[in-house]
Structure prediction request, 851 residues.
Amino acid sequence: MSDEQSFTLDGRRIPFQNGQTVMQAALEAGVYIPHLCFNPEFTPHGSCRVCLVKVNNRMQAACTTPAADGQTVQSETEELREIRRGILQMLFVEGNHVCPACEKSGACQLQAVAYYTGMLAPHFKHFYPRRPVDASHPEAVIDFNRCILCELCVRASRDVDGKNIFAVEGRGIQAHLVVNTPSGQLGATGFSLHDKAAQVCPTGSILTKHRGYDIPIGQRLYDRKPINVVGDVAQLPDRQGGRRHD
Amino acid sequence: MVESSMLTETIRDIVQHHSGMPTRLLQILRDVQDRLTWLSPETLERVAEELSISPNKVRSVAEFYSFLYTTPRGRYDILFSDNITDRMLGNRELLHYLCGRLKVSIGETRSDGLVTIGTTSCTGMCDQGPAALVNGYTLTRLNPSRLDGIANLIESRIPLAEWPRELFEVYSNLRRADILLGRHFADGSALRAVLKRGPEAIMEEMVKSGLRGQGGAGFGSAAKWISCRNAPGNVKYVVCNADEGEPGTFKDRVLMQDFADLVFEGMTLCGRVIGAQHGFVYLRGEYRYMLNPLKATLQRRREAGLLGEAILGDISFNFDIEIHLGAGAYVCGEESALIESLEGKHGVPRIRPPFPTTHGYLNKPTVVNNVETFAAAAKIAVEGGDWFASRGTAQSKGTKLLSVSGDCERPGIYEYPFGITVNRVLEDCGAHDAQGIQMAGPAGHMISAKQFDRRICFEDLATGGSFMVFDQKRDILDGVRNFAHFFVHESCGFCTPCRVGTSLMRDLMDKVHTGHGTRYDLEEMRKLGRIMQAGCHCGLGQTAPNPVLDSLDQFPEAYERRLRSTAYEPAFDLNAALEEARQLTGRSDPGAYLNEEDLLVGAMP
Prediction:
């Protein structure tokens, strides 16, 4: 036995360093745990709850749970897949997601994670909220219909870009993404496509204008291989169909 | 409309009164709203400017708390408490009655800007309801004649300060006292004990006492104090959680109203033990009427040398207490959300670990205890841990205050040793015909008569104190539906399963309650409940499905008699969906309806 600290994930030994979470250690070891609000470049948020795992038999979010020596972690069990599916279905009915018509279809993390967990239909009653699209910016469109409140754009704009353009306001089911200007319009901000905030959305909420369907449907990021093989859209360069500008 | 320069001046005064501290943002917004009746976009911009913080921070707080308004409200703002216990006492009829008297619709502001009438979550007056708040101040025991008086006062534009005092009278209804409330406590005696015997000796007494968090979670109080005392750092805080938002609970209200010295003494004691010099009471917004009396009590204690600098003449003993008023957010009863709120932010529970005992208020070590826990700690310091532990059961030492309401002859506060049976409580409060009890509030458990021999203690039925009685003539599902709506209103919106799950559960519950549910829907509710219990970020979401899941198990017949015989009924009501088209085309002929039954429904006013 080495003195290296480790835990087991679905029976597989995962080494970790002090201060790492279950998610970070798993990713480093090349083991995929589905996630949406987690992005390795940002402080864990723990809000989407898609990365739920059982740690020593207790339900925890893998992205916020510190790894500990000797832990037993379960991830790919039918019980957890069912809960994850349920949470994804909630996200799909909360907003207005029209995959067949969406520019991001096939390169959308939400859609890819949904397929990964075996979700075939939204199941729950649709909320059909009224959320106007903001096309005021010359380079980008914000389609609030697809926002899942992961706050990655909020965090990227505030912590990386230093622009603090986005925020979430309201309580409970009224919580919604806003643009931090008196008019609430993206066009009135200093937002740019080169911002980190433009590269982190796991759905099709922040879209590039004057560009669309460059890669035909069927040949996109997740069309041929699942997300656990391909990786997150925010981590892949745009020449590979990802969101990242290198 | 307030003129721009006046607006700036008003806001500047208030911000300066709060020493320009962004941590006091919630208090500042409360004070600004008191002056201006609502928080306009311009007002929020000015507040942000004066505090030199980003406007979106101010907006996110203003949008989060129920008692902060970002749309205009009437000069008289009335909110009816809408807990199931208020409903049992006829609050809906009274709500409609007052709306009729004042010619205003529910949730709307009258066109002359005089009055707004709406509803709010339980205001903690379940033993003397139906209750309401007027401009934040509690009105109790409402009935048509009291409402007639209130309507006249409003129409005559009489300032609130001149309204008859009896409208605002809050009774204590203390029905049974045991060791906590039954014995006299000499102010300062716990502080003398800690000065004489030292913090270590007091901690030993706390360990011996076995005292556990009386808010309901039951974490060992001594362990919390010791962890905070041992945490590195010179600056530490004591926080008293008086954000008693669990529907049906009102025991902290009685403690703060009648036993505030005992609570403050417990906090000061804790400060001495853990090495903190600053304490906060987070008083729920619904108890605003107590703010000034409590401030006066604090001042009296300062003058008596029991608070402030050099307590009891010891120059090394400095501790003071500040009261922070909430603004209508149940989630702030969760200790990390409460700390966020104390820091002037919207109340979203933090990721734990780290826990408040090491990273609490402003990331400093902090003890957060319930009101009752601090009161018990003060007594333990004087009487000793063994004395306290002589009451109760093996794992639940001492006593528990219960807030008893609903269908019983003597609602009020009952103090019992832990381990008492539900039956005994029912007997004492005069509930002769109970079919079920909602124990520990909607987040707790619903039990049926088969379980009335169960014991109230952490080993069996743990509780923060809420005890709502439903008698045989009640429809249990009225309560369950009320609670499902409550959780939608109180979800903070941070995590998916709570934000979306509470709304889905409410819709399913409404569908079943109105007789459109099928067996399939009941199975859906169970599934949804399991996802919420497993997946939510904090205790609020994890417990939100409890009333539905418990009642499905305990009161299946209440569901059965409402079910449709079909296996499946769509959530989508096609006839209702056609209503808009009928209105647009002005049609009401039979051809505009799907079938005859719908025509009859559609023709009703």
Remarks:
- The longest helix of chain A spans residues 78-94.
- Residues 21 and 66 of chain A are 4 Å apart (CA to CA).
